[in-house]
Amino acid sequence: MVSLGTGVLGTSFDWNLFSRIVLPVKFLQIGCSVLFFYTNYLFLIPIFLKKGNLVKYLIAIIVTLVIFSPIYYYLEQHLYPLIGWKSYELDLNFWFALMITLSANFVNIFLGLLLSYLMDWRTMSVQKELVEKEQFKTELAFLKSQINPHYLFNTINDIYALTQQQSPQAPNALLKLSELLRYMLRESDDQFVPLSKEILYLENVIELQKIGQKGASFVSFEVIGDISELKLAPLILINFVENAFKHGIFNDREKPITLLIIVDKHRLNFQIINQINQFKKDKTGGIGLTNVKRRLSLIYPEKHSLTINQLNNEFIVNLTIDLL
């Protein structure tokens, strides 16, 4: 009979002894440990400990140990000796079996507690991440919904005036407006759009501004660099353009509103300069800029730089975005 005192291995490994005695014993021991672990992990912890009943949980652990003790007693005292394994030289009694059960499962109790709370932490982290993503999407959708109403109302009024005057520019203005609406309602639902489409959107906005002012709107818009492969969050730049039209001087041929986009590899540099119209005061003028700052912080955290300065009678915006 093999016992703890004599050992299993001699000078050479005995595969017959291992398969006939050691393997079945270890299989039974592991099986008992697994059964105890999942009893604690799946039932005792959720039913008692997770509901704040610490005393009941401790009582339940003790009861479970008592229930498992006869199993360990039978295995150690009867079954193991039948297959040639004896762990202890002395005969077992109930209290000795209870101590064996506790010593065999003390680590299992700790591991069950650890795994249970780790899984709770993981679940809470995943749920928190999902909530943050939903809040992120909701906030972005809200901010995007705030972008264009003021400009659209003004544009519709301008087109209405053109139709009353039976201006030949009215059909072209309606076409430009439909292109703007299509972009706003369809393309802007995507997280990112081709930079070329965003630039075309700005060009249409500028063109509508010129039509609405009967040509008395002077804007210089230049794009430098390769934009073919780059993407940008939609409707990021339009606030600055609308702000320039809303608060700037656009009817001075000598000092037009200047828009410049420079693309250097994956870096976008956007600059807009306009003369300040001292006679235009709008109490809600800062809402658009506040929204776009918030959107930039959400979409391009640590990947953008925005400076807005007033120099003499000029309003200067410089925005840099890493588009990677």
Describe the structure.
It is a single chain. This protein has 324 residues and is α+β, with helices and mostly antiparallel strands. The protein has 2 domains: 2-129, no CATH class; 146-322, Heat Shock Protein 90 (2-Layer Sandwich). Helices cover 58% and strands 16% of the residues. The protein has 8 helices and 10 strands. Strands 4, 6, 7, 8, 9 and 10 form a 6-stranded mixed β-sheet that branches. The chain has a two-stranded parallel sheet with strand order 1-2. The chain has a two-stranded antiparallel ribbon with strand order 3-5. A hairpin with a 2-residue loop joins strand 9 (304-311) and strand 10. Helix 1 runs antiparallel to helix 2, helix 3 runs antiparallel to helix 8 (287-299) and helix 4 packs across helix 6. The chain is rod-shaped, with a radius of gyration of 38 Å.
What is this entry, summarized?
The protein is an alpha+beta fold. It has two domains: 2-129, no CATH class; 146-322, Heat Shock Protein 90, CATH 3.30.565.10.
Descriptors:
324 residues, alpha+beta, Heat Shock Protein 90, 2 domains, six-stranded mixed β-sheet, two-stranded parallel ribbon, rod-shaped, disordered N terminus
Mean pLDDT value: 78
Q: What proportion of the residues form beta strands (DSSP E)?
A: 15-25%
What is the CATH third-level topology name of the largest domain?
Heat Shock Protein 90
**Shape, per Cα inertia axes:** rod-shaped
Helix content: 55-70%
Q: Please identify, by name, the CATH architecture of the largest domain.
A: 2-Layer Sandwich
* The CATH class of the largest domain: Alpha Beta
- Structural domain tally: 2
Q: Note the total helix count.
A: 8
Q: Biggest sheet, in brief?
A: 6 strands, mixed
Strand and helix order: EHHEHHHEHEEHEEEHEE
Q: Cα-atom Rg, whole angstroms?
A: 38 Å
CATH superfamily of the largest domain: Histidine kinase-like ATPase, C-terminal domain
End-to-end CA span: 70 Å
- Give the uncertain stretches in residue-range form: 2-10
Could you tell me the number of beta strands?
10
Structural class: alpha+beta
